[in-house]
Design goal:
single chain; 348 residues; alpha/beta; Helicase, Ruva Protein, domain 3; 3 domains; two-stranded antiparallel sheet; 16 helices; 10 strands; disordered N terminus; binds adenosine-5'-triphosphate; binds magnesium ion
Length: 348
């Protein structure tokens, strides 16, 4: 995988856990891939704000790792030995959400056969992660606002106020500012949440991480699936580098699992990729890798860029070299020499 060297720069939605304390700060990011400058910035921000107890709003497209980062914030904070309670506000039936969050008293509504402790109370001392907060109803937005302001609430069917000590981390894939403008999200709640925003980049904004993800998922999958898929061809990796990844890391993780399980051993080749991805070698443009503090090899990066452009021109001209040379405004002999040097071949 030549790219590794080249880009080495840079129950219905509720989970409760008592996280074990990591022995040092780095453990908070264990298993989180992020060599790119954009992700390194996110990690440094998490380190700075984790202990502050300030409310954090994580924003990012689906599959960018919002859940992982929320967990990392908790693991990095002084609350790490206390519960981390996660609730997906978009995945719980509207009529149950209030009871899930604040608990209820026996008999408060049909089906409430016993008292129930809500997630806010369960998270006492620790962190509550309000995932997909942009998908909450207006009614609940009012109730959440009160907890954010006063850290107290009344369980459904009770008039007794419960006070809790919780750190709030929220996440959404929506543009909450836009939702406020549209009248879907309360402005006062927005400003309560928008204390420390953390924006997670999409995978296409940090393509230099793709080779690291590939290595990471190969390692993990070979262990869990008992396979021996050890590497990926340059051509396959090139195609993956150019894909738009609308499903971000989740899409990449699922694709890696599919390919590793089906392949079982050896090298992932371009033919193992989905058809739409294979074709991208010729249609999309190459994206510049990020330059991290470690730097990057300019001549290798430039060669890779040149290789991509030559390949693209050849595909566009059905490998008629005269025409490809014209497109690139070089002599045919120059083009032929470069095709040899880069060992470019037409895919079957
Ligand atoms: N930086 C990363 N390193 C390793 N794995 C990652 C990373 N980011 C995401 N993943 C993996 O990708 C998948 C999606 O991550 P996660 O659920 O945290 O994303 P999300 O932003 O919360 O998505 P959604 O908005 O759909 O809930 C998970 O399996 C997660 O482990
Ligand atoms: Mg999520």
């Amino acid at each position: 995988m030549q790219h590794l060297a080249m880009i080495s720069d840079g129950d219905a939605g509720v989970v409760i856990e008592n996280s074990g304390a990591p022995s040092n700060p780095i453990d908070a990011f264990e298993g989180i891939v992020g060599e790119s400058a954009r992700m390194q910035k996110v990690f440094r921000l998490v380190e700075r704000v984790a202990d502050s107890d300030s409310t954090i709003l994580i924003n990012g497209e689906t599959g960018t790792g919002k859940g992982l980062i929320a967990h990392a914030i908790h693991k990095q904070s002084y609350r790490k030995d206390q519960p981390f309670v996660s609730i997906n506000c978009g995945a719980i039936a509207e009529n149950l959400l209030e009871s899930e969050l604040f608990g209820h008293l026996k008999g408060a509504f049909t089906g409430a056969t016993a008292n129930k402790v809500g997630k806010f109370e369960a998270a006492n001392g620790g962190t509550i992660f309000l995932d997909e907060i942009g998908d909450m109803s207006q009614d609940l937005q009012v109730k959440i606002l009160k907890v954010l302001e006063e850290r107290c609430f009344e369980p459904v069917g009770s008039c007794k106020t419960v006070t809790v000590n919780v750190r709030i981390v929220a996440a959404t894939h929506r543009d909450l500012e836009e939702e406020v403008q549209k009248g879907n999200f309360r402005e006062d709640l927005f400003y309560r949440l928008f204390v420390i925003p953390i924006a997670l980049p999409s995978l296409r904004e940090r393509r230099s991480d793709i080779p690291h993800f590939v290595t990471h998922f190969l390692d993990c999958l070979n262990k869990t699936k008992k396979t021996q898929v050890t590497t990926i061809s340059d051509e396959a990796l090139n195609a993956m580098m150019q894909h738009a990844w609308p499903g971000n890391v989740r899409e990449l993780a699922n694709l890696m699992e599919r390919m590793v399980v089906i392949k079982g051993e050896g090298e992932i080749e371009v033919n193992d990729l989905p058809a739409k991805m294979k074709n991208q070698t010729s249609t999309d443009s190459f994206c510049a890798p990020d330059i991290t503090a470690d730097g990057l090899c300019l001549s290798t990066a430039v060669s890779e860029f040149e290789k991509q452009l030559i390949y693209q021109s050849l595909e566009k001209t059905k490998w008629v070299k005269n025409r490809a040379a014209q497109l690139l405004q070089v002599k045919r002999t120059t083009l032929v020499e470069k095709i040899k040097r880069y060992e470019l071949q037409r895919c079957a």
